[in-house]
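If you are new to this repository, start here. Below is one unmodified record pulled from the training split, so you can see the exact layout before writing a loader.
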Amino acid sequence: MGWRIVVDYDLCESNAVCMAVAPTVFEVDDDDNLNVLQETPPDELRAKVEESVARCPKQAIAIVED
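And here is the target side for that same chain:
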């Protein structure tokens, strides 16, 4: 079973907390837009993504099990 990252861009404020936790997965560009660099990251990044989900101030990030 796989998993993927889903972002609610209506909630996201692009504050870059997720990028600080998992910079290989999330990036806030120069225009303050959040980009998910790896929508389906490898399992070894799962803990970092879960931390990003937990620390998101707006709870705009979720993990979806496929």
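Two things worth knowing about this chain: The radius of gyration is 11 Å. The chain has a mean pLDDT of 97.
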